Amino acid sequence: MSIIKKLASQTAIYGLSTIIGRFINYLLVPLYTYYLSGVSDYGVVNVMFSYASLFSVVFAFGLETAFFHFAQRTDKPERILSTAGNFLIVTGFVWIILARFFAEPAMEFVGYPEHPEYALWFTMILSVDAISALGFAWLRNQQQPWKFAFIKLSNIFINIGANVFFIVLCPILYKNGYDWAYYWAQPENMVSSIFLSNLIASLITFPLLFNTWKNLKWGMDIDLLKQMLKYAYPLIFIGLAGMINETFDRILIKKLTPNGLGDYEASIYSAFYKLSLVLTLFVQAFRFAVEPFFFQQAKSLDAKHSYAYVMKWFVYAVSIIYLGTIIIVPFIAPYLIQNPEYFKHPNGMNAVPILLAANLFLGIYYTLSVWYKVSAQTKIGSLPAFGGAIVTLILNYILIPKLGFMGSAYTTLIAYASMVVFGYLLCRKYYPIPYEMFPILASLFLTFTLGYLVLQTQNMQMHIAIKLASFVSLMAGIYIYEKYIYKSPIAHDQRSN
To answer: Is 225 inside any structural domain?
Structure first.
Protein backbone atom coordinates (compact mmCIF):
# COMPACT_ATOMS: atom_id res chain seq x y z
CA MET A 1 0.00 0.00 0.00
CA SER A 2 1.44 3.40 -0.96
CA ILE A 3 2.10 6.13 1.59
CA ILE A 4 -0.80 8.22 0.32
CA LYS A 5 -3.22 5.28 0.37
CA LYS A 6 -2.12 4.37 3.89
CA LEU A 7 -2.45 7.93 5.14
CA ALA A 8 -5.76 8.35 3.30
CA SER A 9 -7.16 5.27 5.04
CA GLN A 10 -6.04 6.59 8.43
CA THR A 11 -7.47 10.02 7.64
CA ALA A 12 -10.76 8.38 6.63
CA ILE A 13 -11.01 6.32 9.83
CA TYR A 14 -9.75 8.83 12.38
CA GLY A 15 -11.41 11.61 10.47
CA LEU A 16 -14.75 9.82 10.42
CA SER A 17 -15.70 11.20 13.79
CA THR A 18 -14.30 14.59 12.90
CA ILE A 19 -15.93 14.93 9.49
CA ILE A 20 -19.30 13.40 10.36
CA GLY A 21 -19.30 14.72 13.90
CA ARG A 22 -18.24 18.25 13.05
CA PHE A 23 -20.67 18.32 10.15
CA ILE A 24 -23.48 17.35 12.50
CA ASN A 25 -22.16 19.89 14.99
CA TYR A 26 -22.31 22.55 12.28
CA LEU A 27 -26.04 21.90 12.15
CA LEU A 28 -26.13 23.81 15.42
CA VAL A 29 -25.36 26.97 13.45
CA PRO A 30 -28.82 27.12 11.81
CA LEU A 31 -30.30 26.15 15.18
CA TYR A 32 -28.56 29.04 16.94
CA THR A 33 -29.11 31.60 14.19
CA TYR A 34 -32.82 30.70 14.09
CA TYR A 35 -33.68 30.36 17.80
CA LEU A 36 -31.41 32.86 19.57
CA SER A 37 -33.37 36.02 20.26
CA GLY A 38 -30.90 38.38 18.57
CA VAL A 39 -27.95 38.32 16.21
CA SER A 40 -25.69 39.59 19.00
CA ASP A 41 -26.41 36.52 21.15
CA TYR A 42 -24.52 34.33 18.69
CA GLY A 43 -21.64 36.79 19.05
CA VAL A 44 -21.59 36.14 22.82
CA VAL A 45 -21.37 32.40 22.13
CA ASN A 46 -18.41 32.82 19.79
CA VAL A 47 -16.55 35.28 22.02
CA MET A 48 -16.80 32.88 24.98
CA PHE A 49 -15.67 29.91 22.91
CA SER A 50 -12.79 32.00 21.57
CA TYR A 51 -11.58 32.56 25.13
CA ALA A 52 -12.11 28.86 25.81
CA SER A 53 -9.98 27.89 22.81
CA LEU A 54 -7.21 30.16 24.04
CA PHE A 55 -7.22 28.76 27.56
CA SER A 56 -7.57 25.15 26.39
CA VAL A 57 -3.90 25.29 25.37
CA VAL A 58 -2.83 26.23 28.89
CA PHE A 59 -5.06 23.56 30.47
CA ALA A 60 -3.57 20.83 28.22
CA PHE A 61 0.11 21.81 28.83
CA GLY A 62 1.10 20.42 25.41
CA LEU A 63 1.04 16.91 26.87
CA GLU A 64 -0.94 15.35 24.02
CA THR A 65 1.92 15.86 21.56
CA ALA A 66 4.45 15.05 24.29
CA PHE A 67 2.66 11.73 24.82
CA PHE A 68 3.15 10.78 21.16
CA HIS A 69 6.79 11.82 21.29
CA PHE A 70 7.66 9.78 24.40
CA ALA A 71 5.34 6.84 23.66
CA GLN A 72 7.30 6.10 20.45
CA ARG A 73 10.46 5.80 22.53
CA THR A 74 9.34 3.20 25.07
CA ASP A 75 7.76 -0.24 25.25
CA LYS A 76 5.58 0.94 28.15
CA PRO A 77 3.40 3.80 26.87
CA GLU A 78 1.10 3.17 29.84
CA ARG A 79 3.64 4.87 32.08
CA ILE A 80 3.67 7.91 29.80
CA LEU A 81 -0.14 8.13 29.82
CA SER A 82 -0.36 7.67 33.58
CA THR A 83 2.16 10.39 34.35
CA ALA A 84 0.53 12.93 32.04
CA GLY A 85 -3.02 11.94 33.02
CA ASN A 86 -2.50 12.19 36.78
CA PHE A 87 -0.77 15.53 36.34
CA LEU A 88 -3.73 16.91 34.36
CA ILE A 89 -6.19 15.65 37.00
CA VAL A 90 -4.30 17.53 39.73
CA THR A 91 -4.01 20.74 37.70
CA GLY A 92 -7.67 20.45 36.68
CA PHE A 93 -8.76 20.62 40.31
CA VAL A 94 -6.48 23.63 40.84
CA TRP A 95 -8.04 25.46 37.87
CA ILE A 96 -11.56 24.80 39.17
CA ILE A 97 -10.70 26.11 42.64
CA LEU A 98 -9.20 29.26 41.13
CA ALA A 99 -12.28 29.77 38.97
CA ARG A 100 -14.48 29.50 42.02
CA PHE A 101 -12.74 32.47 43.65
CA PHE A 102 -11.99 34.65 40.61
CA ALA A 103 -15.10 34.14 38.45
CA GLU A 104 -16.49 37.67 38.89
CA PRO A 105 -13.36 39.68 37.94
CA ALA A 106 -12.68 37.24 35.09
CA MET A 107 -16.11 37.73 33.54
CA GLU A 108 -15.94 41.47 34.09
CA PHE A 109 -12.75 41.50 32.01
CA VAL A 110 -14.37 39.37 29.29
CA GLY A 111 -17.30 41.78 29.10
CA TYR A 112 -20.16 39.78 30.63
CA PRO A 113 -20.04 40.66 34.36
CA GLU A 114 -23.66 39.61 34.85
CA HIS A 115 -22.72 35.97 34.25
CA PRO A 116 -19.88 34.88 36.59
CA GLU A 117 -21.15 31.30 36.30
CA TYR A 118 -19.73 31.14 32.79
CA ALA A 119 -16.18 31.20 34.19
CA LEU A 120 -16.79 28.14 36.38
CA TRP A 121 -18.61 26.21 33.66
CA PHE A 122 -15.88 26.77 31.10
CA THR A 123 -13.15 25.92 33.60
CA MET A 124 -14.84 22.57 34.23
CA ILE A 125 -15.24 21.98 30.49
CA LEU A 126 -11.59 22.76 29.75
CA SER A 127 -10.26 20.70 32.67
CA VAL A 128 -12.21 17.61 31.66
CA ASP A 129 -11.50 18.06 27.95
CA ALA A 130 -7.74 18.34 28.57
CA ILE A 131 -7.71 14.94 30.25
CA SER A 132 -10.07 13.43 27.66
CA ALA A 133 -7.79 14.64 24.84
CA LEU A 134 -5.02 12.55 26.39
CA GLY A 135 -7.37 9.56 26.41
CA PHE A 136 -8.10 10.08 22.72
CA ALA A 137 -4.36 10.31 22.05
CA TRP A 138 -3.98 6.91 23.71
CA LEU A 139 -6.60 5.41 21.41
CA ARG A 140 -4.84 6.85 18.37
CA ASN A 141 -1.49 5.53 19.56
CA GLN A 142 -2.99 2.09 20.18
CA GLN A 143 -4.63 2.16 16.74
CA GLN A 144 -8.20 1.89 17.99
CA PRO A 145 -9.86 4.18 15.43
CA TRP A 146 -13.39 2.83 15.74
CA LYS A 147 -13.47 3.26 19.51
CA PHE A 148 -12.03 6.73 19.01
CA ALA A 149 -14.76 7.52 16.50
CA PHE A 150 -17.54 6.10 18.69
CA ILE A 151 -16.61 8.19 21.74
CA LYS A 152 -16.02 11.33 19.69
CA LEU A 153 -19.39 10.97 18.00
CA SER A 154 -21.04 10.23 21.35
CA ASN A 155 -19.72 13.53 22.69
CA ILE A 156 -21.12 15.42 19.71
CA PHE A 157 -24.53 13.72 19.77
CA ILE A 158 -24.84 14.36 23.52
CA ASN A 159 -24.02 18.03 22.96
CA ILE A 160 -26.52 18.33 20.13
CA GLY A 161 -29.17 16.44 22.07
CA ALA A 162 -28.75 18.73 25.07
CA ASN A 163 -28.94 21.81 22.84
CA VAL A 164 -32.15 20.60 21.21
CA PHE A 165 -33.61 19.74 24.62
CA PHE A 166 -32.85 23.14 26.17
CA ILE A 167 -33.42 25.41 23.17
CA VAL A 168 -36.23 23.67 21.25
CA LEU A 169 -38.04 21.10 23.39
CA CYS A 170 -38.21 22.88 26.77
CA PRO A 171 -39.89 26.04 25.39
CA ILE A 172 -42.47 23.83 23.66
CA LEU A 173 -43.10 21.89 26.86
CA TYR A 174 -43.45 25.10 28.85
CA LYS A 175 -45.98 26.49 26.41
CA ASN A 176 -47.97 23.28 26.78
CA GLY A 177 -48.31 23.62 30.54
CA TYR A 178 -45.17 21.91 31.87
CA ASP A 179 -43.98 24.63 34.26
CA TRP A 180 -40.80 22.78 35.22
CA ALA A 181 -39.51 23.27 31.66
CA TYR A 182 -39.29 27.04 32.18
CA TYR A 183 -36.21 26.66 34.39
CA TRP A 184 -34.43 24.54 31.81
CA ALA A 185 -35.55 26.60 28.83
CA GLN A 186 -34.16 29.90 30.19
CA PRO A 187 -35.92 31.90 27.42
CA GLU A 188 -34.31 35.14 28.61
CA ASN A 189 -30.81 33.67 28.25
CA MET A 190 -30.60 30.79 25.80
CA VAL A 191 -26.85 31.39 25.55
CA SER A 192 -26.51 29.71 28.96
CA SER A 193 -28.22 26.62 27.57
CA ILE A 194 -25.54 26.34 24.90
CA PHE A 195 -22.74 26.43 27.46
CA LEU A 196 -24.50 23.95 29.75
CA SER A 197 -24.92 21.56 26.83
CA ASN A 198 -21.17 21.58 26.24
CA LEU A 199 -20.51 20.98 29.93
CA ILE A 200 -22.86 17.99 30.00
CA ALA A 201 -21.23 16.50 26.91
CA SER A 202 -17.73 16.87 28.38
CA LEU A 203 -18.70 15.32 31.72
CA ILE A 204 -20.33 12.30 30.05
CA THR A 205 -17.44 11.76 27.61
CA PHE A 206 -14.86 11.35 30.36
CA PRO A 207 -16.26 8.05 31.77
CA LEU A 208 -16.67 6.67 28.24
CA LEU A 209 -12.86 6.47 28.19
CA PHE A 210 -12.97 4.24 31.28
CA ASN A 211 -10.73 1.48 29.87
CA THR A 212 -8.05 4.06 29.09
CA TRP A 213 -8.09 5.42 32.62
CA LYS A 214 -7.18 1.99 34.01
CA ASN A 215 -3.64 2.88 33.02
CA LEU A 216 -3.56 5.71 35.56
CA LYS A 217 -2.73 3.12 38.22
CA TRP A 218 0.92 3.50 37.18
CA GLY A 219 0.97 6.79 39.09
CA MET A 220 3.00 9.89 38.28
CA ASP A 221 6.72 9.56 37.58
CA ILE A 222 8.14 12.94 38.57
CA ASP A 223 11.38 12.55 36.61
CA LEU A 224 9.44 11.53 33.51
CA LEU A 225 7.00 14.40 34.04
CA LYS A 226 9.89 16.88 34.11
CA GLN A 227 11.15 15.50 30.79
CA MET A 228 7.68 15.68 29.25
CA LEU A 229 7.09 19.24 30.43
CA LYS A 230 10.52 20.27 29.18
CA TYR A 231 9.57 18.95 25.75
CA ALA A 232 6.02 20.29 25.92
CA TYR A 233 6.34 23.78 27.39
CA PRO A 234 7.36 25.38 24.07
CA LEU A 235 4.27 23.73 22.60
CA ILE A 236 2.15 25.69 25.07
CA PHE A 237 3.44 28.96 23.63
CA ILE A 238 3.10 27.60 20.10
CA GLY A 239 -0.48 26.61 20.92
CA LEU A 240 -1.25 30.00 22.45
CA ALA A 241 0.18 31.75 19.43
CA GLY A 242 -1.84 29.42 17.20
CA MET A 243 -5.05 30.14 19.08
CA ILE A 244 -4.38 33.87 18.90
CA ASN A 245 -4.20 33.41 15.15
CA GLU A 246 -7.32 31.20 15.01
CA THR A 247 -9.76 32.70 17.50
CA PHE A 248 -8.49 35.96 18.98
CA ASP A 249 -10.02 37.96 16.14
CA ARG A 250 -13.50 37.41 17.62
CA ILE A 251 -12.31 38.78 20.95
CA LEU A 252 -10.71 41.80 19.29
CA ILE A 253 -13.79 42.43 17.15
CA LYS A 254 -15.83 42.67 20.36
CA LYS A 255 -13.26 44.92 22.03
CA LEU A 256 -12.41 47.21 19.10
CA THR A 257 -15.72 47.65 17.28
CA PRO A 258 -17.18 51.05 18.20
CA ASN A 259 -20.74 51.96 19.23
CA GLY A 260 -21.30 48.78 21.26
CA LEU A 261 -21.66 46.63 18.15
CA GLY A 262 -18.89 44.20 19.07
CA ASP A 263 -21.11 41.17 19.73
CA TYR A 264 -23.14 41.87 16.58
CA GLU A 265 -20.06 42.10 14.34
CA ALA A 266 -18.50 39.03 15.98
CA SER A 267 -21.73 37.14 15.33
CA ILE A 268 -21.80 37.99 11.60
CA TYR A 269 -18.11 37.21 11.20
CA SER A 270 -18.37 33.87 13.03
CA ALA A 271 -21.45 32.76 11.12
CA PHE A 272 -19.88 33.34 7.71
CA TYR A 273 -16.61 31.82 8.91
CA LYS A 274 -18.57 28.57 9.26
CA LEU A 275 -19.06 28.50 5.49
CA SER A 276 -15.49 27.21 5.16
CA LEU A 277 -17.01 23.99 6.51
CA VAL A 278 -15.56 21.34 4.16
CA LEU A 279 -12.02 22.71 4.07
CA THR A 280 -11.90 23.14 7.85
CA LEU A 281 -13.20 19.62 8.42
CA PHE A 282 -10.65 18.10 6.07
CA VAL A 283 -7.76 19.92 7.72
CA GLN A 284 -8.92 18.84 11.18
CA ALA A 285 -9.42 15.23 10.13
CA PHE A 286 -6.03 15.20 8.41
CA ARG A 287 -4.35 16.51 11.58
CA PHE A 288 -5.76 13.63 13.63
CA ALA A 289 -4.33 11.08 11.22
CA VAL A 290 -1.08 12.73 10.24
CA GLU A 291 0.50 13.37 13.66
CA PRO A 292 0.94 9.72 14.73
CA PHE A 293 1.70 8.85 11.10
CA PHE A 294 4.57 11.36 10.96
CA PHE A 295 6.05 10.11 14.22
CA GLN A 296 5.92 6.53 12.96
CA GLN A 297 7.53 7.52 9.65
CA ALA A 298 10.35 9.30 11.52
CA LYS A 299 11.94 5.90 12.13
CA SER A 300 12.26 5.09 8.43
CA LEU A 301 15.22 6.02 6.22
CA ASP A 302 13.09 7.81 3.63
CA ALA A 303 11.02 9.76 6.18
CA LYS A 304 11.78 13.17 4.64
CA HIS A 305 10.73 11.99 1.19
CA SER A 306 7.51 10.68 2.73
CA TYR A 307 6.83 14.06 4.32
CA ALA A 308 7.42 15.82 1.00
CA TYR A 309 5.15 13.42 -0.85
CA VAL A 310 2.37 13.87 1.70
CA MET A 311 2.68 17.66 1.54
CA LYS A 312 2.26 17.77 -2.23
CA TRP A 313 -0.88 15.66 -2.21
CA PHE A 314 -2.25 17.56 0.75
CA VAL A 315 -1.91 20.80 -1.24
CA TYR A 316 -3.68 19.15 -4.18
CA ALA A 317 -6.54 18.10 -1.90
CA VAL A 318 -7.03 21.46 -0.17
CA SER A 319 -6.80 23.26 -3.53
CA ILE A 320 -9.65 21.16 -4.90
CA ILE A 321 -11.70 21.67 -1.73
CA TYR A 322 -11.05 25.43 -1.77
CA LEU A 323 -12.25 25.87 -5.33
CA GLY A 324 -15.20 23.53 -4.82
CA THR A 325 -16.30 25.50 -1.76
CA ILE A 326 -16.03 28.81 -3.64
CA ILE A 327 -18.33 27.32 -6.28
CA ILE A 328 -21.03 25.94 -3.97
CA VAL A 329 -20.99 28.42 -1.08
CA PRO A 330 -23.69 30.77 -2.53
CA PHE A 331 -26.07 27.81 -2.64
CA ILE A 332 -25.40 26.39 0.85
CA ALA A 333 -25.16 29.69 2.76
CA PRO A 334 -28.94 30.21 3.27
CA TYR A 335 -29.31 26.66 4.60
CA LEU A 336 -26.52 27.05 7.15
CA ILE A 337 -27.39 30.58 8.27
CA GLN A 338 -31.13 30.57 8.85
CA ASN A 339 -31.67 34.16 9.93
CA PRO A 340 -31.98 36.57 6.94
CA GLU A 341 -30.67 39.39 9.12
CA TYR A 342 -27.14 38.00 8.72
CA PHE A 343 -27.26 38.48 4.93
CA LYS A 344 -28.15 42.14 5.29
CA HIS A 345 -24.58 42.86 6.36
CA PRO A 346 -22.72 44.04 3.23
CA ASN A 347 -19.48 42.20 4.03
CA GLY A 348 -20.72 38.81 5.23
CA MET A 349 -20.27 36.85 2.01
CA ASN A 350 -17.25 38.94 0.99
CA ALA A 351 -15.26 37.53 3.90
CA VAL A 352 -15.78 33.88 2.93
CA PRO A 353 -13.19 33.47 0.11
CA ILE A 354 -10.58 35.32 2.18
CA LEU A 355 -11.17 33.10 5.21
CA LEU A 356 -11.17 30.00 2.99
CA ALA A 357 -7.74 30.95 1.64
CA ALA A 358 -6.54 31.60 5.18
CA ASN A 359 -7.62 28.12 6.29
CA LEU A 360 -5.92 26.60 3.27
CA PHE A 361 -2.61 28.14 4.36
CA LEU A 362 -3.28 27.05 7.94
CA GLY A 363 -3.58 23.45 6.76
CA ILE A 364 -0.28 23.74 4.88
CA TYR A 365 1.36 25.17 8.00
CA TYR A 366 0.12 22.25 10.12
CA THR A 367 1.53 19.77 7.61
CA LEU A 368 4.79 21.70 7.37
CA SER A 369 5.20 21.75 11.16
CA VAL A 370 6.19 18.07 11.18
CA TRP A 371 9.87 19.03 11.03
CA TYR A 372 10.14 20.51 14.52
CA LYS A 373 7.94 17.87 16.15
CA VAL A 374 9.84 14.81 14.91
CA SER A 375 13.22 16.50 15.43
CA ALA A 376 12.25 17.78 18.92
CA GLN A 377 13.18 21.36 17.94
CA THR A 378 10.03 22.82 19.44
CA LYS A 379 11.66 26.06 20.58
CA ILE A 380 12.77 26.99 17.08
CA GLY A 381 9.53 25.61 15.63
CA SER A 382 7.55 28.03 17.76
CA LEU A 383 8.90 31.08 15.92
CA PRO A 384 6.43 31.05 12.96
CA ALA A 385 3.45 30.76 15.30
CA PHE A 386 4.75 33.67 17.37
CA GLY A 387 5.34 35.69 14.23
CA GLY A 388 1.79 34.98 13.11
CA ALA A 389 0.45 35.99 16.51
CA ILE A 390 2.28 39.31 16.34
CA VAL A 391 0.90 39.93 12.85
CA THR A 392 -2.59 39.01 14.09
CA LEU A 393 -2.49 41.40 17.04
CA ILE A 394 -0.93 44.36 15.23
CA LEU A 395 -3.01 44.20 12.04
CA ASN A 396 -6.26 43.55 13.89
CA TYR A 397 -5.68 46.59 16.10
CA ILE A 398 -5.02 48.67 12.97
CA LEU A 399 -7.66 47.27 10.61
CA ILE A 400 -10.72 46.43 12.74
CA PRO A 401 -11.53 50.09 13.61
CA LYS A 402 -11.20 50.94 9.89
CA LEU A 403 -12.61 47.90 8.07
CA GLY A 404 -14.64 46.06 10.72
CA PHE A 405 -14.43 42.28 10.61
CA MET A 406 -13.08 42.42 7.04
CA GLY A 407 -9.90 43.69 8.69
CA SER A 408 -9.81 40.46 10.69
CA ALA A 409 -10.36 38.38 7.55
CA TYR A 410 -7.43 40.03 5.73
CA THR A 411 -5.31 39.77 8.86
CA THR A 412 -6.00 36.05 9.20
CA LEU A 413 -4.95 35.41 5.61
CA ILE A 414 -1.75 37.45 5.94
CA ALA A 415 -0.85 35.82 9.26
CA TYR A 416 -1.26 32.24 8.03
CA ALA A 417 0.54 32.89 4.74
CA SER A 418 3.47 34.46 6.60
CA MET A 419 3.60 31.47 8.96
CA VAL A 420 3.92 29.12 5.99
CA VAL A 421 6.77 31.13 4.47
CA PHE A 422 8.63 31.53 7.77
CA GLY A 423 8.08 27.88 8.70
CA TYR A 424 9.38 26.71 5.33
CA LEU A 425 12.56 28.79 5.68
CA LEU A 426 13.24 27.37 9.14
CA CYS A 427 12.55 23.86 7.88
CA ARG A 428 15.12 24.29 5.09
CA LYS A 429 17.73 25.38 7.61
CA TYR A 430 17.18 22.99 10.53
CA TYR A 431 15.51 19.90 9.04
CA PRO A 432 15.61 20.03 5.23
CA ILE A 433 12.70 18.23 3.58
CA PRO A 434 12.79 17.92 -0.25
CA TYR A 435 9.41 19.51 -0.92
CA GLU A 436 8.38 19.56 -4.59
CA MET A 437 7.86 23.30 -4.84
CA PHE A 438 6.86 23.56 -8.50
CA PRO A 439 3.64 21.50 -8.33
CA ILE A 440 2.79 23.00 -4.93
CA LEU A 441 3.15 26.61 -6.07
CA ALA A 442 1.58 25.92 -9.47
CA SER A 443 -1.45 24.28 -7.82
CA LEU A 444 -1.93 27.24 -5.47
CA PHE A 445 -1.54 29.79 -8.27
CA LEU A 446 -4.03 27.98 -10.50
CA THR A 447 -6.48 27.54 -7.61
CA PHE A 448 -6.51 31.20 -6.58
CA THR A 449 -6.63 32.40 -10.18
CA LEU A 450 -9.61 30.20 -10.98
CA GLY A 451 -11.26 31.16 -7.70
CA TYR A 452 -10.90 34.86 -8.50
CA LEU A 453 -12.35 34.27 -11.96
CA VAL A 454 -15.38 32.50 -10.47
CA LEU A 455 -15.96 35.31 -7.97
CA GLN A 456 -15.78 38.01 -10.63
CA THR A 457 -18.35 36.42 -12.95
CA GLN A 458 -21.79 38.01 -12.68
CA ASN A 459 -23.92 36.56 -15.51
CA MET A 460 -25.71 33.56 -13.99
CA GLN A 461 -25.67 31.23 -16.99
CA MET A 462 -22.06 32.06 -17.79
CA HIS A 463 -21.33 31.87 -14.07
CA ILE A 464 -22.32 28.19 -13.89
CA ALA A 465 -20.32 27.36 -17.00
CA ILE A 466 -17.22 29.06 -15.66
CA LYS A 467 -17.59 27.31 -12.32
CA LEU A 468 -17.66 23.90 -13.98
CA ALA A 469 -14.83 24.77 -16.36
CA SER A 470 -12.69 26.08 -13.50
CA PHE A 471 -13.13 22.97 -11.38
CA VAL A 472 -12.43 20.65 -14.31
CA SER A 473 -9.35 22.70 -15.23
CA LEU A 474 -7.85 22.34 -11.77
CA MET A 475 -8.48 18.59 -11.65
CA ALA A 476 -7.09 18.16 -15.18
CA GLY A 477 -3.99 20.19 -14.37
CA ILE A 478 -3.16 18.01 -11.37
CA TYR A 479 -3.83 14.81 -13.32
CA ILE A 480 -1.72 15.81 -16.33
CA TYR A 481 1.21 16.85 -14.17
CA GLU A 482 1.23 13.70 -12.08
CA LYS A 483 0.52 11.34 -14.97
CA TYR A 484 2.64 12.70 -17.79
CA ILE A 485 5.07 15.38 -16.60
CA TYR A 486 6.57 14.28 -13.31
CA LYS A 487 6.57 11.03 -11.38
CA SER A 488 7.62 11.20 -7.77
CA PRO A 489 10.43 8.75 -6.97
CA ILE A 490 8.79 7.74 -3.73
CA ALA A 491 5.47 7.15 -5.46
CA HIS A 492 7.26 4.96 -8.03
CA ASP A 493 8.99 3.00 -5.29
CA GLN A 494 5.73 2.46 -3.47
CA ARG A 495 3.93 1.25 -6.60
CA SER A 496 6.69 -1.20 -7.39
CA ASN A 497 6.52 -2.84 -3.95
So the answer is: yes
Q: What is the mean pLDDT of residues 419-438?
A: 91
The string of pLDDT tens digits covering residues 110-142 is 989 999 999 999 999 999 999 999 999 888 888
Q: Is residue 390's pLDDT more than 90?
A: yes
Give the 3-state secondary structure of the chain.
Answer: CCHHHHHHHHHHHHHHHHHHHHHHHHCHHHHHHHHCCCHHHHHHHHHHHHHHHHHHHHHHCCHHHHHHHHHCCCCCHHHHHHHHHHHHHHHHHHHHHHHHHHHHHHHHHHCCCCCCHHHHHHHHHHHHHHHHHHHHHHHHHCCCHHHHHHHHHHHHHHHHHHHHHHHHHHHHHHHCCCCCHHHHHCCCCHHHHHHHHHHHHHHHHHHHCHHHHHHHHHCCCHHHHHHHHHHHHHHHHHHHHHHHHHHHHHHHHHHHCCCCCHHHHHHHHHHHHHHHHHHHHHHHHHHHHHHHHHHHHCCCCCHHHHHHHHHHHHHHHHHHHHHHHHHHHHHHHHHHCCCHHHHHCCCCCCHHHHHHHHHHHHHHHHHHCHHHHHCCCHHHHCHHHHHHHHHHHHHHHHHHHHHCHHHHHHHHHHHHHHHHHHHHHHHHHHCCCCCCHHHHHHHHHHHHHHHHHHHHCCCHHHHHHHHHHHHHHHHHHHHHHHHHHCCCHHHHHHHHC
Number of domains into which the chain is organized: 1
**What pLDDT score was predicted for residue 485?**
75
Does residue 380 sit within a domain? yes
Please give the residue that has the higher pLDDT: either 476 or 182. Answer: 476
Please indicate, yes or no, if residue 190 is contained in any of the structural domains: yes
